[in-house]
Write a structure and sequence with these properties.
By secondary structure, this protein is an alpha/beta fold. It has helices at 10-24, 42-47, 52-76, 98-106, 124-134, 168-173, 181-190, 204-209, and strands at 31-33, 81-85, 94-95, 110-114, 140-144, 149-150, 162-163, 165-167, 194-198, 216-219. The strands form 3 sheets. It has a 4-stranded parallel β-sheet, with helices on both faces. Strands 5-9-10-8 form a 4-stranded mixed β-sheet. A two-stranded antiparallel ribbon has the order 6-7. It is globular and about 50 Å long.
Length: 221
């Protein structure tokens, strides 16, 4: 969405694609899980009286729109990318199959995972953790608008302090809302490290994949 009030900002999309293009040159195998909140957010739809399951299904479709937009921008940049969906959509995208996703990654293609887990009541965070585990990722990056995990909401509390390193257990016990509890619990069981960083800052995607110390790291100990 970038600085736009709704939808897809071509300027911001191209900035992200420029960074992803540089990131592929590092030799990283990259899988991306996209949300759909810039178009439709299931939770907000349910809050307005819509059936939650129906609202979440609409949210899944919104992620497909974002995935296709991202794929198109990557292909125009000369970066091979494939969109894999948790729900069947015929000829538009490929269905998610674990072996297929891994094969694309091994061939140097960026894999874009859409439609969440394919089920209502599960967030994009949970979908990202699930896909990371399925493709045996080394680390899960939570690319967001804040610089990492804070002890309280930085938007509402000017004195909020960033926590450079924190355990899964501490995130859950302190009720820190960096990711939902299901996603954190899933990562904790598999000891999948999570790095939370600000993707709005130019160069941060490449820095994150290069192993720079930025944002916050969520680990077992």
């Amino acid at each position: 969405m970038g600085k736009e009030p709704y939808g897809i900002s071509s300027d911001f999309l191209n900035k992200v694609v420029d960074e992803l293009s540089k990131a592929t040159e590092l030799g990283s195998q990259i899988g991306i899980v996209v949300g759909g909140g810039n178009i439709f957010r299931g939770v907000s739809g349910a809050a307005k009286g819509m059936n939650r399951a129906a609202a979440d299904q609409m949210g899944m479709l919104a992620t497909v729109l974002n995935g296709l937009a991202l794929q198109d921008a990557l292909l125009k940049k000369g970066v091979e990318a494939r969109v894999l969906s948790a729900i069947e959509i015929g000829r538009m995208v490929e269905p998610f199959v674990r072996a297929r996703a891994i094969k694309h990654l091994e061939k140097g293609r960026i894999v874009i995972f859409v439609a969440g887990t394919g089920n209502p009541f599960f967030t994009t965070d949970t979908a990202a953790t699930l896909r990371a585990l399925e493709i045996e990722a080394d680390i899960l990056f939570k690319a967001t608008r804040v610089d990492g995990v804070y002890d309280k909401d930085p938007y509402e509390n000017p004195d909020a302090q960033r926590i450079p390193k924190i355990t899964y257990k501490e995130v859950l016990e302190k009720g820190l809302r960096v990711m939902d509890a299901a996603a954190i619990s899933l990562a904790m069981d598999a000891k999948l490290p999570i790095m939370v960083f600000n993707m709005m800052k130019e160069g941060n995607i490449v820095k994150a994949l290069s192993g720079h110390d930025l944002g916050s790291l969520i680990v077992a100990e």
